[in-house]
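Consider the tokenized backbone below.
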């Protein structure tokens, strides 16, 4: 694309040439951030025949990939080895090689800061790094979940600090990631991809690029609609989970089996989607993403009351579960001081090892502060940090269960033997409807 720099060809001609390279899989794709989002995407483009430059700030990840080792659950190492052998993938931890990329896709984290405000430092860092190698003719796409306006208000100015101008020299689009780690049914190619470009050409090129690896591309008018779509998806879950939690609390008072009531409601074949109560909402999406939306709304003088209320309810569930434990242990004639409590499942949801924002961590902390002797069993989480301590998962044995005053089922991994727990634990608090009705089972 140096031709553009010399004014030898018009920008439009450059974009047409880029379109040709994309449609013939001759384009070079740069992926910034090789985590659970970026690595599957890099593997998909490499498998499709593109030349992929994967960039990550973590040299261990880069070295592992260049050894043909995958560290992401959904990307088998065989795929990495194959891509390396075909010279379709190279992993780097310096930004210079991305100058060769025709398209650069940014897949870096967007966490929240201490008081739930957006932390765009990774996005800003990525944009500043790209600006050092940005050249005429490149397409930059942001995938990180963020509030409407980020692409236009944050990314573009940082890219233009290079001295290049959007539209004339480079193009920009937003396309939210929809990777669901461990999902056996949905992966990059069969999950529809929403794409919003800053301008028609950017939208078309970004759609054409993703269209080479994804079965369905959903075009929207601008990055704002694409940024908002993702937040709608996850806020929808946060709010409905909170509703299920609040209904569970009132159902207990009414003597209603909430799990049975929700299952019955779910028999309606239209106009209903079941959500279930639980010990709280963990993970790096659902508890976090809605705050990007509510923060932006507050910046504009508005409040999204559903998000604030849902946060309050979901955030309060660990304490509600601990109150159930206190009541149950109390009714068994024991004090929480010195009570032996066994937590079952510390990951934020079943069949994964991720404990980020897991409600189990809050429950563990609350019980420890009550003076209970707390241990845990989670086949996916061999050890955990608790302050300065490292705590380890204990083996689930009849002896352990018999010595326990109360077992608390927080995450219902299939590998946790509910039958064994039911037989030997004297008391169970069940937050996932994992046990049958039984005198010693207290159900959420
Ligand atoms: N949870 C409930 N009740 C429910 C559903 C979830 O308490 O009815 C809890 C879970 O235990 C967990 C938290 O909420 O602690 C989040 O669960 P999740 O099922 O939403 O799983 P996540 O956080 O892995 O969400 C991801 C999201 N995927 C992306 O952002 C690309 C989300 O949009 C997906 O819908 C979700 O996976 C999924 O369906 O698996």
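A designed sequence for it:
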């Amino acid at each position: 694309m140096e031709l553009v720099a010399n004014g030898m060809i018009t920008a439009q001609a450059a974009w047409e040439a880029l379109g040709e390279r994309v449609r013939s899989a001759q384009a070079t794709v740069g992926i910034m951030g090789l985590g659970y989002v970026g690595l599957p995407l890099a593997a998909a483009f490499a498998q499709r025949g593109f030349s992929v430059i994967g960039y990550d700030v973590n040299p261990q990840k880069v070295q592992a990939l260049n050894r043909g080792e995958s560290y992401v659950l959904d990307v088998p190492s065989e795929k990495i080895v194959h891509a390396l052998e075909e010279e379709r993938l190279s992993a780097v931890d310096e930004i210079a090689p991305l100058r060769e990329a025709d398209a650069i896709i940014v897949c870096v984290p967007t966490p929240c800061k201490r008081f739930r405000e957006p932390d765009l430092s990774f996005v800003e860092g990525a944009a500043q790094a790209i600006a050092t190698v940005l050249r005429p003719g490149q397409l930059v796409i942001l995938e990180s979940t963020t509030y409407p306006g980020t692409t236009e208000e944050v990314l573009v100015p940082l890219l233009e600090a290079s001295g290049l101008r959007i539209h004339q020299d480079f193009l920009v689009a937003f396309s939210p990631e929809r990777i669901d780690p461990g999902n056996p049914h949905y992966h990059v190619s069969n999950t529809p991809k929403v794409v919003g470009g800053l301008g028609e050409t950017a939208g078309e090129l970004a759609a054409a690029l993703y269209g080479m690896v994804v079965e369905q591309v959903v075009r929207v008018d601008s990055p704002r609609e694409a940024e908002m779509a993702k937040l709608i998806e996850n806020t929808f879950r946060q709010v409905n989970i909170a509703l299920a939690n609040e209904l569970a609390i009132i159902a207990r008072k009414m003597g209603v089996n909430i799990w049975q009531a929700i299952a019955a409601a779910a028999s309606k074949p239209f106009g209903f989607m079941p959500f279930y109560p639980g010990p709280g909402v963990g993970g790096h999406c659902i508890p976090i993403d809605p705050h990007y939306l509510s923060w932006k709304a507050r910046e504009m003088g508005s409040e999204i009351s559903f998000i604030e209320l849902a946060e309050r309810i979901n955030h309060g569930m660990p304490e509600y579960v601990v109150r159930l434990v206190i009541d149950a242990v109390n009714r068994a004639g024991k004090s929480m001081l010195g009570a032996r409590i066994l937590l079952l499942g510390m990951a934020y949801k079943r069949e994964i090892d991720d404990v980020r924002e897991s409600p189990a961590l809050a429950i563990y902390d609350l019980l420890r502060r009550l003076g209970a002797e707390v241990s845990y069993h989670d086949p996916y989480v061999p050890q955990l940090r608790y302050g300065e301590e490292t705590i380890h998962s204990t083996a689930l044995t009849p002896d352990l269960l018999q010595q326990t005053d109360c077992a608390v089922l927080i995450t219902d991994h299939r590998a946790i033997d509910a039958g064994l727990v039911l037989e030997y634990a004297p008391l169970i608090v069940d937050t996932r409807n994992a046990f049958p009705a039984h005198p010693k089972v207290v159900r959420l």
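Residues 32 and 106 are 5 Å apart (CA to CA).
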